[in-house]
Every structure is written in C-alpha cells, then in structure tokens.
Amino acid sequence: MNFTSIKVEKNIARQDILFAVARVPNSSKAFIAGSDFKISEIDFQQAKPEIRSFPAHSSYVTALILKDDTLISGAYDGKLVWWKASSGEKIKSIDAHKKWIRQATISPDGKHFASVADDMALKIWNIADAKMVREMTGEHKPLTPNDFQSMLYACAFNKDGKLVASVDKTGHIVVWETFTGKKIATMEAPIMYTWDPNARRHSIGGPRSIAFSPDSKLLAVGGTGKIGNIDHLEANGRVEVFNWEKSERLHEFVTDKSKGLVEHLEFHPDGNILLGAGGAGEGFLAFMDLKEKKVAHQEKAAMNIHAIASSDNMKSLLAVGHHRVLHIKTA
Amino acid sequence: MNKIRKNYCGSTEHAVSRRQFIGSAASGIAGASLFAENALSAELKKQGKSVILLWLAGGASQLETFDPKPGAITGGPFQSIQTSTPGVRISELMPKMAARFKDTCVIRSLNTKNGDHGSASQLMMRGRKDEASLKYPDMGAVLARELGKPESQVPDYVSFYLQSEGRNFSGSGFLGARFGPMELSKSVMPENINKPDHISESDFLDRMALRDLWSKNFETGRSSGTLASHQQAFMRVHGLMESQKLFDVSKEPQKMRDMYGPTQFAEQVLIARRLAESGVPFVRVGRAWWDSHGQNFETHQELVPELDHVMATLLTDLEDRGMLKNTLVVTLSEFGRTPGINSSLGRDHFASAWSCSLSGCGVKGGSIYGKTDEKGEKVIEGEIGAARLFATIYKALGINPQKNYYVGSRPVPLTDPGTEPVQEVLA
Predict the structure, then answer these.
(1) Does domain B50-189+254-425 have CATH number 3.40.50.300?
(2) Which one of A210, B5, B143, B328 has the lowest number of neighbouring Cβ atoms within 10 Å?
(3) Chain B nearest CA to A198, separation (Å)
(4) A323 occurs within a structural domain
(5) With 70 as the cut, is the pLDDT of residue B40 above it?
(6) ipTM for this model
(7) Domain-embedded: residue A109
(8) Is the pLDDT of residue A83 over 60?
(9) Residue A118 class from Cβ within 10 Å (0-12 exposed, 13-18 middle, 19+ buried)?
C-alpha cells in the first residue's frame, strides 16, 4: 500500500467550520463539531447526511471522544461534557480547564482520554465516571519568551497508553508517564513557532499535532515552517520525527506542494507511513515514508483539514475542516 | 566639528539636524502667520489638552474587541462580557477595559469605504483624502497646531512606530514641517537631539549663555516677527534636547513600570503619558501589526489582552494624576476585519462596519454609539465616516471642526465642509 490513490467519495458542504470528528465504528455514521458550538451526527453515505444536531457549548467545539454510547465533547469554553451518544442527552458537564481546550485523545484501551488546553495543563480522565485521574502542569510555560500567552495545542498516547506526549506553541515537547505524571523526556521543535520581533511583533504557528509510532519509539510533531510574513500561514507544512528516548530529531518532512499547518498526524499501523493533513488557504494530505525519509505522496484537499478520523488501516479517512466533510478512500 | 546627524527614522526623507530643524521651525512659525489666531484658540492652548492615539496598525478586529457577535456564524470563538455600563458588552479579551468602561465611548458604526492599508491609513490619520494639489495635515499636525504652545519647549507631536510594517503614512501636509512628528522608529529614545559628545556639559551651558547674551544685545531696539520666531525656534530645539529625559522610562518608579507591563507597547504608552504630562499635545503610539489574514484568533489572543491591559492602565493612571479630563485617548486602526472567517482561520480587510474608541477628554464615557447587524456585516444605526469621527475628536477637545486654515487665500476647514461632530459621543 503506497497511498498514491486518493479518492474523495463524499464531499459534504457545511455552514460551520469543523474542528472535531469521532466515527461510530463499523458504520458510516460520525459525530462532528466546530464553530456553531453544536454537535452534529451525520451519516456520510446518505444524500442528506445530517441526522441531528444539538447545542453543546458556548464556544468552538474542538474535541470529540466516542466510546460505545458515551460521547464526550471539549471546547474553547473550557468544558468537557459527557453525552449519551444515542439520544444526545447531556449526562455531565465539567469545568475541566481554565482556558481553551485544544484537543482530546482517547487512550488505546478506550478507558481514558487526555485533554490539553491553553491553561497549559494536560489532564487524564476516566471515561466511565468522568473523574480526572492525573494532571500534568508546570512544564509548559504559560507565557512565551516574549511575554504573550502560550498555548498547549496537542497530545497523544503511545500504543499501550502508558505514555502520553504534549506539545505547546513554542515547540516544547514533553513525554509523560500517563498514570504517575512523571516527566520522562523533553524535546524542542522551535522552527514551527515564528516570533517576529521587528516587522509585526507578534507570533504565528506552533506545532498542532503529535503522534507516537506503533512501536512507541518515534514521536512525530506536525506544524508549519518558519514564516516570513506572519500575516499569513505562508510556510510549507512541516513534520519533525524524534527518537524521544534520546531527545534526538531524526527526520524533517516538508510538504513542498502545500502551505499551512499540519493539524492531524497518524502513523499507519505498519509504522512505515505517516499521514499528515492540514492546510491554510487550501488543504492537503501528505503521506511520509519513514524508511525512505521523504514525502511519498501529496494531495490537495478541497478544504483546510482540521481533523481526521480514520478506519480500516487508514483506507478510509473522514476529514473535517473549513465548511466541509470529506470521506476519502486510499489505496 | 559637527558630526553627521542620524535620521529620526532612517529615511533620507526625515533626515533632520538641529540646524535644519531651526530653519524649518522658524519658517513654519512664519507660515503660521497665514492663520488667524483668535482668543478662543489662545484659551484652548492654555488648557493643556493632549491626545494619546493608540494606533492599531494593520487593522484590529472589531469582533474581537469592541463589537463582539458571540454565537453568530461570523462571531468567532470568543464570548462577550458585561462592562461597567449596564447592557454594554465587549469582547471577553478585554476584561480590564470592561471593568473601567466609565470613561470610554465606543463607536461601532464606522464605514470608511477603504480597505487598502496605505490609503486607508492616510484617510484615518487625516480624516479625508488628499487632493491632487493639496496635502492635508494629519490629526497629530492639526492638534500640534491647535493645542501646542508657541513657548513650549517640548515637542508638539511625537510618534512611536517601532515595527517596520505599515509606516510612512503621517504628515503635516500644508501645515509644514513645524507641525510634523518627531518620529521614533528605532528606539523609544530620540536619536538626534543629543548634545554632541565632544562638547562638555559646562561648555554647552557656556555656549548657551553666550548665545543668549548676544541674542539679547541684538534684539535690543529691534522689533521683528522673524527675529522672534527664530528665537522661539531655537528655544524649542533647546527644549527638545532637554526633553530627552521624558523619553527615559527608567525615570519612572519601578512600581509604575510594572503596572504598565513588560512589553514594548506598554513602555511606549507609559512614555506617552510622561510626554502628555509634560505638555506634549499629541502622541501616537503605533502598535503593529494586526493584519491577521491567517490565524486571526491566535493573533488577537496575543494582541488584545496587551491592548486591554495597557489601555486600562493608561486610563487609570491618567485619572489618578487628574489628567483624564484633559487627555483624550483614542484607539483607531486603518480599518477593521471581515466578519467572514477565511480558510486560514483569518479575517481580511473590512472598512464597512468597524469600531474605534474615545476615552477621557470631552467624551460621554460608558457609552456606545452606532450599531451593526447581527453578523457585523453592515452598519444599521449611526453610520459615520472618517470626517465625522475627526469632527467629533476635534469637538471633544474644544476645537471647532469647521475652523478655517488658509492656504494662500483659500479657506480650508479642519474637516470637510459641513461635517458635524457626533453629539451623542460628546460629554
């Protein structure tokens, strides 16, 4: 499988900008959410995909976790909300973070999930009882070196769920033991963060995605390159791959046919291919060959992609982003 | 031996030595005789009014500052918060200004019809477009002319613009160099008003005393406007050299510096307060660069809290010093930003329905003027353009917006003929 065949099977226009997606296993249904503060359930194979939609938060919804009939949403309002997926009934709402929740990711065993937010905290939660089981703070600084608010953008579990990694706006990466909260490695990806001290005096960029390889030896971080004119996301997408145990950067991938942020990163289960997706004015998919150390294939997307839920060993990708949902088949 | 002077901003256009400054200042004062001084303007000058313009260069988003639309498809992720005025809400990114809204009037109904950085910046600094044969003075030059005191030994118009993007849009137009800005573009300290290094302090004082003696001897028995204006100009330059300490933020107590905060913008605004306190009638602090075509919300998360903190601190500081009733603080950009969110999660240029704020002198505090529709796409109440905004600013300071200058024999009012200030904004 070389991922050179990319076919968009469904292209669904939306009014909202979508930041989160969770697929119902073994079906064509999914939950999506974004800028209208709602959660929508869709069947992407249907002519009229939207099944229902319900108000969920008071700001952009940026995280969805689905485990059986439990759906959990996270948003820029700092709340995590537990829902009964089948009915849309609200079960519980928690003031989980003091600032924007940027991302949440489910653990491999499906019992826990991690959330990261601009309060610079990484928190581990029990899905079943909605209890926080661990909080990691202090390592990601609240301010950038230039005294502006930093942001904690992304987190990921390794395959057995015993490790969790987080990355902030300035490119500071931390690997933690999930259930002790112990910091066990740090790395830096500073190129992805641009501070312009002279022309415009603010910043742009920052890593937006992170993923462990299936063997847990590699850690990939996605964002964008150094930007000249920070009015725009004008640099190419960028992915850096680390041997996290040595805090050593091994490879750098650049999406030379596309500009913008890599907002989704995912290793193929065989460990040889890394999928990056994102964009700016336009969207892109990039398949990186870890053996050859090159971007094997790049494809334009019909929208800036903010999140992907994959299934069937990445043969089916449900991508959400700027006013669209795409169902993509790969081969 | 004279050294070659460094420029204010690095451009040859602004290469001004003290000797050149004396020449232009003297000619400017002579030129000012074109304009009729009257008792009213003399009285106005005595009142010691000042304007501090916080120039949000590049175009700040009204939706993330003064005209939030939470829940609208255009509204973005931020909520609105209640201000100290019941029923008035601004962006959650501005909690400090929300808490001390009592001195501020927000105008939400600007439609200035120009979305180009360069020409829009000129428009919003001049209040109108230049004519082919007539360059209008910008707000700073007009206020330097109207509020500056001839005997003042501090600059009349100081402009901080330390970022490199978006400069070069100010100018004194037909008022001439006398009312042009002292531009600070490399450092908050003026660069070319230093005493030459090779002259000691005692030598310098001796020279000043000798010059003063010769000057008085020369003036004895003579009566000449040119002579007087030359003497005034010299004293202004001497004052400028002496005023360097006003730009030295280290002269402020550490507690005050901490209140304003650690950023470059905060430091400049603190210096602006020092200048206003010392009689400088117009100070512009340029804060670039708000042009958030990509990642608008991240950009405003950085820039708005800084603006909120510094602006609120400035207003409180001015109030504590008893200066707020005579100091008008203006926040203004060249335009606002589109309600529509582009695919880079940015907002683009938008001049059809945007906001500015006026605080302090002559303003009805704790108020809102004008209204935009639910999505912020158009003005639905109280639409005004640049001319009425400028008329309102001038009126708030006690200046007749229809006062005429004369260019040759041509009367030129401060704002376009017939332009009325917005009475609802005025105290």
Answers:
(1) no
(2) B5
(3) 5
(4) yes
(5) no
(6) 0.95
(7) yes
(8) yes
(9) buried
